[in-house]
Amino acid sequence: xxxxxxxxxxxxxxxxxxxxxxxxxxxxxxxxxxxxxxxxxxxxxxxxxxxxxxxxxxxxxxxxxxxxxxxxxxxxxxxxxxxxxxxxxxxxxxxxxxxxxxxxxxxxxxxxxxxxxxxxxxxxxxxxxxxxxxxxxxxxxxxxxxxxxxxxxxxxxxxxxxxxxxxxxxxxxxxxxxxxxxxxxxxxxxxxxxxxxxxxxxxxxxxxxxxxxxxxxxxxxxxxxxxxxxxxxxxxxxxxxxxxxxxxxxxxxxxxxxxxxxxxxxxxxxxxxxxxxxxxxxxxxxxxxxxxxxxxxxxxxxxxxxxxxxxxxxxxxxxxxxxx
Length: 324
Ligand code: PBG
What we know:
CATH class: Alpha Beta
CATH topology: TIM Barrel
Number of helices: 12
Helix content: 25-40%
Shape: globular
Distance between the termini: 42 Å
Strand content: 15-25%
Bound molecules: ligand PBG
Number of domains: 1
Largest sheet: 10 strands, mixed
CATH architecture: Alpha-Beta Barrel
Number of strands: 12
Radius of gyration: 20 Å
Structural class: alpha/beta
């Protein structure tokens, strides 16, 4: 065939034809909205590096959930900032911890809302690392015991899905066994299987008050240079009992998302993280980028790369935009 006769533009000229040939699209039913809930907070506090995102007091959380539900967003991902931190991470698994209270409130008021809880220790340990520390090192096996207790306490409070984000080895197995032993064999685990040691988390650490007080997270989060390792991490977590896999950050890691979805064929989500939010917000505030168009484009890119669902701070805006 004469190559000159191939005209890709024939499918692009008429918007109706363009629609017929449209491969991917963003849908509100695939969005998860992250929320920060802080104990003993008097009034809502905007996060300086994440304009439009807030730390919420317990009294406000139902209103937020209601707004999300009304827009058609199926679920939220909860992060807790406890009233006190210690070396045992007690508040992470306390029956009356901030997350446990929030989950009970939300499930009572909105039984149909999917409540997903982030399971990690960095918000609860006074040094801000995601696991217990001994002699300056992050302990693995001691940490997964605490993580399993935290996950169980979330399930007992009514969490629909638990999402470990700590990156300790063997934590998915430990959580699965603990949940099963206590009658929560139907609670799914969404594993942040592939979580890179990324500079894009900086605004989140202000939001969750969880910055490490010394060192960094490179001894447990993944090296951004590695792709093969990501596949192995995700495979291991599935073998340990993870039901869904999360890739994080989203931008800069779409190759990873694509490969996991292609090769492992499991429900896979992308987490559009705080730094991605801050970056686009800042440019939009300066008038350098059109926020709506850029956000729809970046998130569509995640769908195209293979994301079944997206955790995003823009969930509410996207829900409004895709309706228009
Ligand atoms: C907790 C956790 C982090 C994020 C989600 N869970 C921060 C970190 O690992 O330092 C980052 C989310 C974001 O940047 O939006 N371990």
